[in-house]
Amino acid sequence: MADIHLPPTLMPLFAGLPRRLDLEAATVDDAIGRLDARWPGLRDRLCDPSGGQIRQHIHVYVDRERAGLDTSLEPGSLVHVIAAISGG
Fold this sequence. Notes:
It is a single chain. The protein has about 90 residues and is of the alpha+beta class. The chain has a single domain, classed as Ubiquitin-like (UB roll) (Roll). The protein is about 20% helix and about 25% strand. Strand 3 (about 60) and strand 4 form a beta hairpin. It is globular and about 35 Å long.
């Protein structure tokens, strides 16, 4: 199982979504799909409308390395989803 850490900005949008959870998934895309199955609409917040890549303002790291949707997850992988914050 991968150890998934989500940004706090998602919690108010999806009832019952924890900040951290363990998830069985083969890739980042698979993990997002499993999250979206449980919390519909989550994929739309993380991926561009075509579903082909992670949104520009979202960064995913797997074991401290920048990841894409096709990045493999191993048992015990640490996954951080980070939302960029902008302002002036």
